[in-house]
Amino acid sequence: MPVTEHQTEMLATLAQGLSVPPRTPILKTPADYGMEYEDISFVTADGVTISGWFIPAYSNKVVISNHFSPANRYGFAGHLEGLDFAGGFEVDFLPRYKALHEAGYNVLAYDLRSHGESGEGDPPVSGVGYFEWQEVLASIDYIRSRPDTAASDVSLMSMCMGANATFNAMEKAPEVFDDIKSLIAIAPLKGRTTIERNCEQMHIPVEEGVEAFEPLYNEITGLHVADHDVIPKAAKARIPVFYLQVRNDMNSRWTDVQEMYELTPGDDKKIVYVEDTPWRFKGYTYFSEHPEEMVEWFDSHS
Description:
Helix content: 25-40%
Structural class: alpha/beta
Number of strands: 10
Oligomer: single chain
Shape: globular
């Protein structure tokens, strides 16, 4: 059955939203949780200025954190009118940073390009991880450039778009990860899966919907749906990985992340499923609500 004009319009809106997400507000800072911090910036290899916070713990341990789209380093103001499309609740990363800080970790949290207060690339779009691997490498370079953290143990916490960016970075520059201690990867996302799931929710035939979406997406970004097949990149991981995924995620399939877990080399890996919710964004709140599992993982690899 061919895709109708109305369905094409819905797919065009989806393509636009993925490629040019709204810049959502940064409602809180570490100071709201009693933490001192620095406003910092660094520049990617392709010249994008990235904004972030550095929260010092005056230790030799660092966790570098990125985010999903359309979030930023604070989280996502999903409780505000107009941003309540993913369950209507706030995603606040600050409790997670607070738990890490209290456990003795310096924290670097940054906005990916076209999000928060960071700049735009060329083209001025979100690549959902395709371009953002450069932020992952630049954030590690930034930590290695600071005299107070240059010799620190570094771990990563990456989610969705940020997790895809991290796996892309591992593939493109594996040597950079030789001394990275571990990664928590929250809800990495296969591009075709999310388009299929959105088609299902919009009652668009899946195969026809993906085919119709492709040129709409390519016109905005120059990319293809197949450019976002992150699953095989898990085989390139050279560090321990802790995966977290909402099992009944309406925008993904838990089996994709299970496959990534199984492809990840070695025995030092872990996977946890968040149960009893369809909301993907509950995966992003998990470690703010259950920080002990996060701290235990990082402690065991520092």
